UniProtKB/TrEMBL annotation:
This is NF2, moesin-ezrin-radixin like (MERLIN) tumor suppressor b. SUPFAM superfamilies: Moesin tail domain (SSF48678), PH domain-like (SSF50729), Second domain of FERM (SSF47031), Ubiquitin-like (SSF54236). PROSITE patterns: FERM_2 (PS00661), FERM_3 (PS50057). The keyword Membrane applies. The keyword Membrane applies. PANTHER family: MERLIN/MOESIN/EZRIN/RADIXIN. One of its GO terms (cellular component) is plasma membrane. Residues 436-458, 476-497, 548-575 are annotated as: Disordered. It comes from Salmo trutta. One of its GO terms (molecular function) is actin binding. InterPro entries: Band_41_domain, ERM, ERM_C_dom, ERM_FERM_C, ERM_helical, Ez/rad/moesin-like, FERM/acyl-CoA-bd_prot_sf, FERM_2.
């Protein structure tokens, strides 16, 4: 026998690809393997022990089918592709997820499948429930919400809501994220398996949860009904409504289910009720319906019995595992809290260190500024001392100047007083001259009047003399000339005492002297008034100059006290005073 003959013949194999909800696996299977061999291999690879919920599904033409465990894989209507693709999915759903799902991997696979069915709108979900379920999905994926880590936009790449919900409301992605994050922040402290279980507990109350729908007819012609198969029983729906069944047949009320080719028969447990018959379009669909009915009914009956030893062991192990994980989570939470406290303390110490460093830097800068300020103040103190000495010297000079100005002011005041006194005397003299002028004017008027009267008397005397001369001319011619008249120019006429002035030149001279004297008095009076006005204006100008002199003295004192250069000293108006004294002497002479 040759060595080659000793070798065992290698079995023939085929390739299989199994897609779970979160992974893809490829296996090399023997041709003789049954469906159970492949299913057990997948369950061992995944680590699943609650195998009764799951199955391997494949696509056949326009529908799907589940791989039968008792038949060989290649003997079934599986695709002829290489590798052959199967989907590892939940075939049957529990009535109460919290009580029936024991393993964490089982919960996780159910969570992923139900989440996908909701997002693909195979299970109808209201917008409010969708947002709440999305928050639990985010908690399961990201853990506790951390504002410093989970910045706005961290959910932009996650598919969390059905498209129908997104299109139903005119809201942006940021607005949806804000709503989901508000719920997500309230789930702090919930572990991943707990978040997934909370998700499933909400989802199991949805109307379409765990229901497989098939198109049926109540007779051979019409196709206006839907058959729903789930963990509770069989339900008949209208084609446009998958939420509220028209009729239901619970598993506890069904005595028998049978089919013959395309006809299905449901016999109620109550024999008084009518048998319900319906028709399906394909034989393959009828086999699938029957398969689902048998599996759901078996699980329904199994739930009502005592758990097997295997299930009890799994529940016990799961309970211990949950307790252990709970303790670990508590320890982890404590360590996390201690680490956070330590980090906060470290941050506080670093902040305090930075603060102290800043304070030290500011103190050093303040010290340097203080030293610079001290040097500057010392220099300023020296300068101030020198300025104080200079100001003291200038203050002494200003005091001397002030005393000199005060003496000058006193002298000016005395001169002013004397000038005012002389002005008053000049005014009195002017008043006297005016009175005398008026009196002389009156005397002149009287003299004019007397002169006029004398001229009238002379005119009358001349007239009378002419008359006498005319009448007695012959007699006067016979006599010798008369002797000259006595001094005084008077002529005695007749026997009376009448005296007539025959010298006109004397009368004119007297009149001219009187008129000249009156004019001289008037001119002197007018000149005196002009002199008085000039004197008043001169006195006013002296007063103004005295005020300016006093102000200039005050400004000079202030400027010298502030250190400004002194102005030109005040020079008294000696020339004006001399002119003023000369005018006063002239007035006294007048």
């Amino acid at each position: 026998m040759s060595i080659l003959g000793l070798k065992k013949k290698q079995p023939k194999t085929f390739k299989v690809k199994v897609i779970t909800m979160d992974a893809e696996m490829e296996f090399s299977c023997e041709v003789k393997w049954k469906g159970k061999d492949l299913f057990d291999l997948v369950c061992r690879t995944v680590g699943l022990r609650e195998t009764w919920f799951f199955g391997l599904r494949y696509t056949v033409k326009d529908t799907y089918a589940w791989l039968k465990t008792e038949k060989r894989v290649l003997d079934q209507e599986v695709p002829k592709d290489s590798p052959i693709t199967f989907h590892f999915l939940a075939k049957f759903f529990p009535e109460k997820v919290e009580e029936e799902l024991v393993q964490e991997i089982t919960q996780h696979l159910f969570f992923l499948q139900v989440k996908k069915q909701i997002l693909d709108e195979e299970i109808f979900c209201s917008p409010e429930a969708s947002v709440l379920l999305a928050s639990y999905a985010v908690q399961a994926k990201y853990g506790d919400y951390e504002p410093n880590f989970h910045k706005p936009g961290f959910l932009a790449q996650d598919e969390l809501l059905p498209k129908r919900v997104l299109m139903q409301y005119q809201m942006t992605a940021d607005m949806w994220e804000e709503k989901i994050t508000a719920w997500y922040a309230e789930h702090r402290g919930i572990a991943r398996d707990e978040a997934e279980m909370d998700y499933l507990k909400i989802a199991q109350d949805l109307d379409m949860y765990g229901v497989s729908y098939f198109a049926i007819t109540q007779n051979k012609r019409d196709t206006d009904l839907l058959l729903g198969v789930d963990a509770q029983g069989l339900h008949i729906y209208s084609p446009n409504s998958k939420l509220n069944p028209n009729k239901s047949f619970p598993w506890s009320g069904i005595r028998n289910i049978s089919y013959s080719e395309k006809e299905f028969t449901i016999k109620p447990l109550d024999k008084k009720k009518d048998v319900f018959k319906f028709y399906s379009s394909q034989l393959r669909v009828n086999k699938l319906i029957l398969q689902l009915c048998i599996g759901n009914h078996d699980l329904f009956m199994r739930r009502r019995k005592v758990d097997s030893i295997e299930v009890q062991q799994m529940k016990s192990q799961a309970k211990e595992e949950k307790a252990r994980k709970k303790v670990e989570r508590q320890i982890l939470a404590r360590e996390k809290q201690m680490r956070e406290e330590a980090e906060r303390a470290k941050e506080e110490m670093e902040r305090r260190l930075f603060q102290l460093q800043d304070e030290a830097r500011l103190a050093n800068e303040a010290l340097l500024r203080s030293e610079e300020t001290a040097d500057l103040l010392a220099e300023k103190a020296q300068i101030a001392e020198e300025e104080a000495k200079l100001l003291a010297h200038k203050a002494a000079e200003a005091e001397q100047e002030r005393q000199r100005i005060e003496a000058t002011a006193l002298k000016t005041k005395e001169e002013k007083r004397l000038m005012e006194q002389k002005m008053r005397e000049a005014e009195q003299l002017a008043v006297k001259l005016v009175e005398q002028s008026e009196r002389r004017s009156k005397e002149a008027d009287h003299l004019k009047q007397d002169l006029t009267e004398a001229k009238d008397a002379e005119r009358r005397a001349k007239q009378k003399l002419l008359e006498i001369t005319k009448t007695s001319y012959p007699l006067i011619a016979a006599y010798s000339p008369p002797p000259p008249p006595p001094e005084g120019g008077d002529l005695a006429l007749g026997s009376g005492s009448m005296r007539i002035d025959f010298k006109d030149s004397d009368m004119k001279r007297l009149s001219m002297e009187i008129e000249r004297e009156r004019l001289e008095y008037v001119e002197k009076s007018k000149h005196l008034q002009d002199q008085l006005k000039e004197l008043k204006s001169e006195i006013e100008s002296l007063k103004l100059e005295e005020q300016q002199q006093q102000q200039a003295g005050v400004y000079s004192l202030r400027n010298e006290a502030r250190g400004y250069p002194p102005e030109q000293p005040y020079m008294p108006h000696s020339n004006r005073n001399s002119a003023y004294m000369a005018q006063m002497a002239f007035f006294e002479e007048v």
